[in-house]
Amino acid sequence: MTKFVFVLIAIVSFSAVSAQLKPKKDWSKVDIDRSGDHIMFQLSSDHWSGAPDSISSRIKGLSRGFNFYVMMNKPFKTDPRWSVAFGIGASNSNIMFKNTNIGILSNATTLPFSNADSSSHFKKYKLATTFLEVPIELRYTEDPSNEAKSWKFAVGVKIGTMLNTHTKGKTLVNSTGATLVSYTEKESRKAYFNTTRLAATGRVGIGHFSIFGAYSITSFLKDGAGASIRPYQIGLTVSGL
After folding, report:
1. Of the candidates 19, 24, 77, 173, which lies 20 to 30 Å from 128 by C-alpha distance?
2. Maximum pairwise Cα distance, the chain
3. pLDDT, tens digit, for every residue of 185-224?
4. Which among 194, 197, 199 is positioned nearest to 223, based on CA atoms?
């Protein structure tokens, strides 16, 4: 996430220098018929910051997420290159584990992450979360009169409430990897998790495609329920309309 922030700052700085070399334009006199990026789809690579080795060493495979937002974009009258956008949507994250059982139904004080039975374990196992979110962005579009081909930058926050958290295991196999039973086990409970989340966000790209990052400011687990884990996502945004 730190590397993403540095890259974003570098690109913004380069754009600012480039803008100084171009003839200045009075954007307050430019009439923009419509503002874009009302719909955003995001595909992400998902990670946990702050997880101890006893947990992070268990995370295996392609942890991924999918986000969808409907946004209202309000350009500034004095300079439509700048705008404020807000909306509503949902964020889904799937963290993949290997040879692990997460005691989401446990009555223990802290959320247990334990080794799977040595004689059998799920071939695929994940912890999935879904949040209903309200994103807010400060946006800059280098050329709003041709926004489909313009550089775009955005920083913001999103606040969300947890809709669901569950573990899901598929296909029970033995220690050699041979299938024992083909079935799916799903357990759902919110007791260990912070159900309200605040995250910082950033995007940079051209036209309808951009790279985004999101970092949770609030801890994933409740105080006393485990380590101070902060999920983050890095991925691709496709936006339009």
Report:
1. 173
2. 72
3. 999 999 999 999 999 999 999 999 999 999 999 999 999 9
4. 194
**In this structure, which amino acid lies at residue 186?**
K
CA proximity to 62, closest of 89, 96, 31: 96
- Please state, in angstroms and rounded to a whole number, the distance separating the CA atoms of residues 67 and 89: 7
One-letter identity of residue 95: I
Structure-model confidence comparison of residues 23 and 216, the more confident one: 216
Q: Enter the tokens of residue 99.
A: 């040879």
Contact 114, 100 (CB under 8 A): yes
Are the C-beta atoms of 97 and 59 separated by less than 8 Å? yes
Provide the pairing of β-strand 64-75 with 100-102: unpaired
Token pair listed for 194:
């912070």
d(CA 228, CA 81): 38
The residues, ordered by sequence, that sit 6+ positions from 10 with a Cβ below 8 Å of its Cβ are none
Per-residue model confidence as pLDDT tens digits over 47-100: 999 999 999 999 999 999 999 999 999 999 899 999 999 999 999 999 999 999
Does residue 15 have a pLDDT over 70? no
Domain boundaries, the chain: 2-12+38-95+130-164+192-240
pTM: 0.86
Question: What is the average pLDDT value for the chain, to the nearest integer?
Answer: 90
In CATH, what is the architecture of 2-12+38-95+130-164+192-240? Beta Barrel (2.40)
